[in-house]
Amino acid sequence: MQDKLIVIVNDMCKDNGLPPLKRLDADQHLRDDLNMDSLMLAELTVRVESEFGVDIFEDGLVETMGDVIRKIEGHQGP
Amino acid sequence: MKNLFLASKGHQYTYEELFRDVGSRKMACSRIFVKGNHPYQIFAAIVHSLWLDYPVELLDGDFSDEELKRMGIQASDLQPALLDGLPEHPPSHEEVTARLHPKNWTLSLYTSGTTGRPKKVTHRYESLTRQVKTGSQWKDHVWGFAYNPTHMAGLQVFFQAFCNKNPMIYVFNEEQKRLPDLIEPYQITHLSATATYYRNIFPRLQSKTYPCVRRITFGGEGFDDRLSEKMKQVFPHAQIRNVYASTEAGSVFAGNGRTFTIPSSIKDLVKINENQELLIHQSLVGTMENAEVGSEWLNTGDVVQKVGADEFAFVSRNSDFINVGGYRVNPLEVEAVLTAVPGVADALVKGKKNSVTGNLLTADIVKEADAEEDEVKKAVREHASRTLQPWKVPRILAFVEDIPKTRTGKKVRE
Hints:
The structure holds two protein chains of two kinds. Chain A is an all-alpha fold. Helices cover 53% and strands 0% of the residues of chain A. In chain A, helix 1 (2-15) packs antiparallel against helix 2 (38-52). The mean pLDDT of chain A is 87. Chain B is 25% helix and 30% strand. Chain B has helices at residues 15-24, 39-52, 65-70, 93-98, 125-128, 152-163, 179-186, 195-205, 225-234, 331-338, 373-387; strands spanning 4-8, 11-14, 27-28, 31-33, 56-59, 81-82, 106-110, 120-124, 143-145, 168-170, 190-193, 215-219, 239-246, 250-256, 259-261, 270-272, 277-281, 287-288, 297-308, 311-317, 322-324, 327-329, 344-354, 358-367, 396-399. Chain A binds chain B through residues 15, 37-39, 41-43, 45-47, 49, 55, 57-58, 60, and chain B through 324-325, 352, 354-357, 360, 362, 381, 390-391, 393, 395-396.
């Protein structure tokens, strides 16, 4: 799952002229560390939803990459 | 061919044949429903109704049984009935056109493109042909017929051609690709179509010029400057016009290029409200089924911009606007930017729902045959980011073979 997620994030980084990530880190803050603005967060939501079928921002409580991973894992089950 | 009425799908019909056929019909139906929308069958039925002066309802041959049922139309309603007391001789063109202020004749259409049950609108002859011009100046025109014949824009072309006894060359739907091969043999002088139509056909036209075409009219969708420039290259002698027509009001305005002129005769019957929507007075509109009592003005749902005392420009359909994080985005504006990128043949911009910004823009792109996907994608992103405000940049791009159209030939936006 994380492999697919890093592809999505790096595709977006490339499109937005940001350097690609070498690995996903649960502590990475989406806004502060990855410099995502609301449009990039919207894009991430749409891309994650089409890949994993879960709306990670449904409750609006997503700050870090760890939150994203937990939402996807929570949706997919243990 | 002398006296040609219609060329369609490899067949040619003269005006004589049309009137002979119409005169020989012993049956008629007040609902015109032709599966596949064969233009000759539709036009002949309209001419028959005009000749014998009875009201007709024009149904799109693409309506499914399910849609007809929802409109309350049964199969038995579409059966023709035997006529009696018919005139002995077939009509002549003069006879039909001389009667063109019919007493009983009306034509009903159904509004398209909106959700829910289509609404019936009934027009009298005068309102339907408000913009039709006749006389020696219009006598030698040859029309490329590039609309669905059961919709308002198609009817406008039909009446303009028919009243002047002009030939029509059918180039809609599957016949569209034949346009480049038909313009010269038939010496087509006038072509009216949607911007989407021109965009689609342009790659097939661009290697040549067609000096016989004298007028190119855009109807039904927003005007596209860049496309208009392309059309001028292919049709060097053509004047570019723009018409505003709707199922409810018929053809109301015409203009050169981007702007429409409000004729002084209807100046007081048109206004723009505080939301920049165009309102048309009830007296210019056909009779609507279930019309709100007392509503004096029809809100067209079209957002326009006033550019002079009696001129306006079309901005977008109100319902086409997409809200991205609180910003209202006009998809037509974004599409115009995308189609300016080399390698892009056409584009459809849509809103993708999400919990962060409400909508995010996505674009379906039709690339030109010899363009590379990766290069086009990169060029589109760069050009869009440079040219548009961030919320107007489509974030997700998908390549598609073609863009679905409504029955009128406009892009499907939902």
